[in-house]
Amino acid sequence: MNYEIIGISVLWLFLYGYLIVASVDFGAGFYAYYAKVTKKDHIMNQLISRYLSPVWEVTNVFFVFFFVGIVGFFPDSAYYYGTALLVPGSIAIILLAIRGSFYAFENYGSKQSNLYMFLYGATGLLIPASLSVALTLSEGGFITEENGKVALDYLALFTSPYSWSVVFLAIVSVLFISAAFLTFYAARANDVAALKLVRKYALFWATPTIIAALTTFIALGQHNERHYQNMFNYWWMFGLSVGFFMIAMWLIYEGKRYGLAFISVMLQFFFAFFGYGVSHLPYILDPYITVYENATHESTGIALIIVFIAGLFLLIPSLILLMRLFLFDADYVKGKK
Amino acid sequence: MMDLDPVLMSRLLTTITLVFHIIFATLGVGVPLMISIAEFIGIKKKDPHYTMLARRWARGFVIPVAIGVVTGTAIGLQLSLLWPEFMQVGGNVIALPLFMEVFAFFFEAIFLGIYMYTWDRFKKPMTHWWLSLPIVIGGGMSAFFITTVNAFMNTPEGFEIGGDGFAAINPLEAMFNPATPTKVFHVLASAYLTVAAILAAIAAFGLLRKKTKEYHKKALKLTVTLTFIFAIFTAIAGDVSAKFLAEYQPEKLAAGEWHFETEGNADLILFGWLNEGNEPEGVIRLPGLLSFLAYSDFNAEVTGLEEFPEAERPPLWIHYMFDLMVTIGVFLLGISFLYLLLSKLKRWNENNKFMLWMLVLSGPLAMLAIEFGWIYAEEGRQPWILRGYMTVEEAATTSPYVGWMFVLFLLLYIALGVIGAVVLRKVFKNNPVEDELEKKYPTIEKGDK
C-alpha cells in the first residue's frame, strides 16, 4: 500500500472518530437543554455532565487532528477548501468557540444560566450542519476556479437538494448516536428514570436517520453520477451498515445489552462512512484534488505516518485510562466518586 | 485594490486571533507547571496551604483553558482559510510539526481531564501528582512544536526550490531550523515567567486586601521565587535571541534598534522617537552595546538597515515593541530580586505596600511583554510570510468576505474575554479561600486569617 492511501485512511478514521465522539457530545448538549425546557433536567443533567466534563476537550482534538492532517497530507486541499470554506468554516469555528467556552462557563463558573444552556444546546445542532458543508463540497459542482481564483457558488449550494439532505442527515444522526450512547450510559449508572427517557429518544430518532440516509443516497445519485455508481461496487458495506442498524434497534427495543447496541450503532456508521469514503476515491475534491496527484511529498508523507504510529502508542493507553476512570468505572458513572 | 483588501483584512484577522490566543496559550503552558510545583510542595511538606493553592489554581485554570482551546482551533483553521496559498506550499514542510503539536495537545487534553476530576480518588496523594506531569510535558511540547513552525517561517530550511514549488523536502531539517533553539528557549522561559508573575500578582492583591495572610504569603513567596528564576532564564534567552538575529535576520535587529548604517562599535538605542528625516531623537545611547549584544564584542560590525532593499525592510515602529518588551523584562527581574533580598534581611518587611503594588503591577506587565515580543518578532519579518520566499501579499486568500469575518471574530473575542473574566471572578468570589480551607482542613487554626 502506498503512503497516500494510508494517509487518507488514517484521516478518514479520525473523522469517523470525531463523528462518533462529537455526535455524543453535540446531541447530549441538545438533550440537556431540551430537558431543561421540558422540566426534566433533574433526570438528565447529572448523567450528562458527569460524562461530558472530563472529555469535551478530547472531542475537539479529533477535529483538529483531521483538518491538520488533511492539509498535511494533501496541501492542495488548503488552497481549494481554504478559499471556498472561508465563510462556512469561520461560522463553524465561531459556533465551536461559543460551545466549548460556554460549556466551561456553565459548569465551572456561574451555576445554571439559561442563556449558556441555550447556546450550548443550539450550537450542538448548528455545528454538524455547518461542518457537513465540507462533505457536500467534496462532491464537486459548488467550487469554481477562474483565472486562478477559487470561489464558492453559494446559489448552487443553497438550492441543491443534495446539500440540504446532507445537513438533515447530519443533524438526525447526531441525535440518534447521542441517544444510543446515553441509553448505554444511563443503564450503566442504573439510572432508571434517565434510561426510560433517553431510550425513547433513541427509538424515536432511528426512523428519521434511516430516511435521511436514503434521501441523501438518492440526491447524491442526481448530483454525482460517478460516485453513485461507485457506491454499488461496495454494496456489501452498506448492507452491513443496515444490518447493524437493525441489531441495534432490536436490542434497544427489547431493552437489553445496551452496550452491544451502542457498538452496533458505531459499526452501522462505520460501514456507511467508510463505504461512502472508499467510493469517493480517488477524489478528495471532485474534480480538483485526487489522492494520488495532489498528495504531499513522499518524505513528508512518510514522516507523518511514522509520527502517527508513534503518537498512537501514546494516545491509546491514555485514552484507555480516561475511559477506565470515567466511562467504565461503575462507581463514577453512578455518581459515587 | 480589490486584491489588496483581503490581504489587509487577513492580516488583521490573524493578528486579533493571535493576540487573543497568546494570552491563553501562555497560561496554558505555564499554569500546569505552577500547579504541579505547588501540589508537590504541599505533599512533601504536608502543608495544606500549598495543596489548596494547587487546587484553586487548577480550578481557575479551566476557564482560560477552554478559551485557549477554542481560539487555538480557530487559528489552526484560519491558517488554511486565510492563507491558502501559503499552506499549499508551506504545508508540505510544516505539516509534521503541526501534526505533532496536535498529538501533544491531545495528550495534554486527556490528562487535564483526568487530573481535574481525580483530586480525591486515589489513596496516595502522590498518584494524583504524577498525573500533573503529562499536562506539564504536553503543554511544553505543544509550545515547542508550534514554535518550530514559526521558526521555519523566519528561517526556512529543509527543502530545495523545484519546478513547481518545494522539492527534496527534509521535514526534520525544516523543524530544527536555525531559529528553533533560541525561539523555543525564549518562548518557554517567558511563558513560565509570565505565569509566575501573574500568580504572584494575584497573591499580592490578596495580601493587600488583608485576606488569609498565611496562605497568600506562602503563595507570594513561591511565585516570586519562580518569577526571579524564570526572569533570569528569559534574560539569557533574550541575549541568545539577539545574537541569533544578528546572524540570520539582521534586518529585524536593525529595524528594532534603528540601526541604519553598517558599522563597528554600534550603539544600543533606548526609547526616543523618529523625526521627519528618520533621525532618532530623545534617545538614550549606550555606546557599543549593540555590537556587544549581537556578537559579544564591543567592536564587532553590525549590519545596518540600508543594506536591504526598501521593499524588504520591516516597519520602524517595531523599535517601541522591542524597548517595551526589554524594559518590562528588566523590571520583572529587578522587582523579584528586590523582594527576595528584602525577605532575607530580617529588618525589612518584604510584604510592604509598595512592594505588593509593584508585584500586582508586574503580572499584567509580563503579559503585555509577551504581546510586545510577539508583535516585534512578527512585524520584524514583514513583508515576508516565508522569509526570502513568499510575501504576505502572495499568500492571502482572495475571498471577498474576510472583512465580515473580521467583524464576527472581533465580536466573538470581546464576548469571550469579557464573559470569561466575569465567570472567573465569580468562581473565586463565591468560594473564598478561607471558607474552603476551613471546610477542607478543619484542623488549621482559626487564627490563621
From TrEMBL, chain A:
Domain of life the protein comes from: Bacteria
A family per Pfam: Cyt_bd_oxida_II
Alphabetical UniProt keywords: Cell membrane, Membrane, Oxidoreductase, Transmembrane, Transmembrane helix
Keyword Transmembrane helix among record annotations: yes
Major localization class: membrane
Enzyme class: oxidoreductase
E.C. number: 1.10.3.-
Presence of keyword Transmembrane: yes
Transmembrane regions: 6-34, 55-74, 80-105, 117-137, 162-189, 201-222, 234-253, 260-281, 301-327
InterPro entries: Cyt-d_oxidase_su2
Localization annotation: Cell membrane
Gene Ontology molecular function, alphabetical: oxidoreductase activity
Topological type in the membrane: Multi-pass membrane protein
Family statement drawn from the similarity comment of this UniProt entry: Belongs to the cytochrome ubiquinol oxidase subunit 2 family.
Protein name in the entry: Cytochrome d ubiquinol oxidase subunit II
Annotated source species: Virgibacillus dokdonensis
From TrEMBL, chain B:
Keywords: Cell membrane, Electron transport, Heme, Iron, Membrane, Metal-binding, Oxidoreductase, Transmembrane, Transmembrane helix, Transport
GO cellular component: cytochrome complex; plasma membrane
Transmembrane segments: 12-41, 61-82, 94-117, 129-153, 184-207, 219-238, 317-342, 354-377, 401-424
Record EC number: 1.10.3.-
Natural source organism: Virgibacillus dokdonensis
Organism placement in taxonomy: Bacteria, Bacillati, Bacillota, Bacilli, Bacillales
Cellular compartments annotated: Cell membrane
A GO term, aspect molecular function: oxidoreductase activity, acting on diphenols and related substances as donors, oxygen as acceptor
Protein name: Cytochrome bd menaquinol oxidase subunit I
Family per similarity comment: Belongs to the cytochrome ubiquinol oxidase subunit 1 family.
